[in-house]
Amino acid sequence: MQLQQQFTEITSLIASAKAKAYQAVNRELVNLYWQVGEYLSNKVKANEWGKSVVEDLANFIKTAEPNIKGFSAQNLWRMKQFYETYLHNEILSPLVREISWTNNLIILSCQSKQEKEFYLRMSLKEKWSKQELQRQINSSYYERVMLADAKLATLSRELLQDEFMKNLNNDNLKMIA
Rounded CA gap, 101 and 70, in Å? Predict the structure, then answer.
């Protein structure tokens, strides 16, 4: 094996390890946001915390941990929304940890549960970047796929019905002969 080929194998190992490390970090980050969202949700439900307390928390985090970003009051409310959106969905709640937080936030803006699930699964399957996910949502990819499926389902039913009728007529002809 040539030396150049061996070097390429090593760089492939490095790239693979970097990708796995990124996925692990992302998973833990989304888990953290889930836990923060759960905590906030429970406090708000118990009427212990409101808007001003969450703003105080954001300021506390900013002061106590000045190098940590992403914990503004607005983001804290998003974490709560994220948690509450997927809390009772046993199928999707593990999947949200497999895509980036940014993609999760983009998907949160979708209207229906089915649309959220569609973009979540597609984002995971196709490894969409935030730009690609946003492009797909803006181009109404979900709606186009659902319309195409509906048209195909109708067409399939018609074709099956035609095939059934043809077979029925052939069977009747055989019985007559």
Answer: 11
For 37-70, write each residue's pLDDT tens digit: 999 999 999 989 988 999 999 999 999 999 999 9
Cα separation of 177 and 169, whole Å?
12
Task: Report the alpha-carbon angle 29-51-104, nearest 5.
Answer: 30
Contact 103, 82 (CB under 8 A): no
Burial class (CB in 10 A: 0-12, 13-18, 19+), 40: buried
Residue that has been written with the tokens 């935030």 in this structure? 130
Please give the structure tokens belonging to residue 22: 């990124």
